[in-house]
Amino acid sequence: MKVLSGFTLFFSFLATLFLSTRSFYVGLIFLILAYIIFSAIRYSRKNVKYGLVKMLVFISLVISLGFISFIGALKYLYPKSYQDMYTVDFITRLKNISGGEVGRNNAWQNSFKLIKENPILGTGTGNWKVEVLKYETPTTGAYIYQYKNHNDFIETTADTGIFGGVLFLGIFILIFANFMKAFFKAKKGDEELYKWLFLPAFGLFCYFFDAFFNFPSDRPEIISFFAIFVGAGVAFSPQSQFITRLSSLVIGHWSLVIRKALRVTFIATLLLLMIGSIYIFHLNFVSLKLQRIAKEELNAGVLRSPSDLFMNGFPAIPDINIEGEPIAVTKARYLITEEKNQEAVDLLKKDNSSPYDTRQEFFIAMAYLKMNQPDSALVYAQKVLKLKPYFSGNVSLLSSAYEMMGNLTEALKVLDDHVKLNTKNGQPITDIIYKQQAGLAAKAGIQKNQVPFNKGMASFNSKEYNKAVQYFTEFIDKEQGVAQAFEYRSFCYFYLNKYPLSLADIERAIVLDPTKPGYLNLRGVNQHMLGNDPAACVDFQKAIEMGDKDAVNNYEKFCKKK
Question: What is the DSSP letter of 323?
Fold first, then answer.
């Protein structure tokens, strides 16, 4: 048994190292210390000091072998890229013990707010991830939320109220207190009093650290251990024995018929509850399979599956997926992809599974915009903006709605305000905002000075390039932030063989809008005409990489032979 326990201890220690989890490392340190203290008292009672020394040597050897095996595996068995990405050695992991704690601390603080709001009954079991969004949604620009609190004690209290939280914590306190009481009450050499409480006490001691920093209540394989520890703790506790004797005294006076009826009622109730639980787990399993398909396609960037698969496949429960997103939103993604926009709107308007999430309103706005109903899109996009101001995707949609209504000034303003807000608060801004900003600035500038720009375009289309230059110059004197004006004036100069002026204008256009490959192609042609072929070829190559077809011909013509 000692040999078997040695192997068990070694491999469990090694497995804990490979988990590379800070909370488990901290728990492991406390567990070893607690066990050494327990053993020291136990051996001192027996006056077997050498036994404690042997035990300390044994534990030291196991730990040393575990560390050597772990470090060796990291160095020689793991691919370098995998090691850099996913695996950290024990010391490094402990050094950054506070790393990544911002999200956990925020989740705990938000939970205390929920507890303060609902101290007696809580938010309802499992509702933490729904209710906490009222605090989390306004603080982030992405739909990536902590759908678990990373502390089962705090989350249980938020879900079930202070009384429920105290009962949950009481399981740990009661069983460990029973063990401590029995251990210190036991006489010298008498271990029967506490040895059956050793496993539940130390098992829950380990579980406590996982529950304090993570969410084992969401992991069935860990919950099974919890059930064993608690079951054993209850079975061998003095309170359980007292209740058993009391029950025997009370029930012993009842008739045999009543006792049988109670037994049948209890078994039948238990079976019904288990059948109901199995059915709910089955529905969850069906849902999870579809969630997996949708998640993989979303990550790949292409929604390939037909919407009917999800509309007909998802069961009624759960109505929120494993990451906290409403199932209705998952369905709506596929409906909108297939241009079934009105169906998406109808579906999302009926959904109230997560009132603080805002994804429902965002996709409603998107569907309305696709149906050319910008006024309706504005209503829902404004709701999203109010609850989730840092979300670039919604601001882009909001700006598009204003643009569709012809209000370019307001369309540009919401983008400018968003950039200022996110920059001030250190929030990310997607590239689409900057591209949209540049495009709208150009359109707004053209809208303010339509006459010279339109006359310039008319002259350009009539190949009256000198006249077009005059009109575009008049426009540029009033509005210098429109890349399009520099682009067409550059073309005019090019056709008039004024290559230095053409090159200067197209370079200004590139500064204003670096996303258009055609600008690089025109700069390359100018460089070639001015005899600077190396620079021209570089421009052609960049334009080709950005997808410009004309640059391919120019590269073939001017660069390939050289």
Answer: T
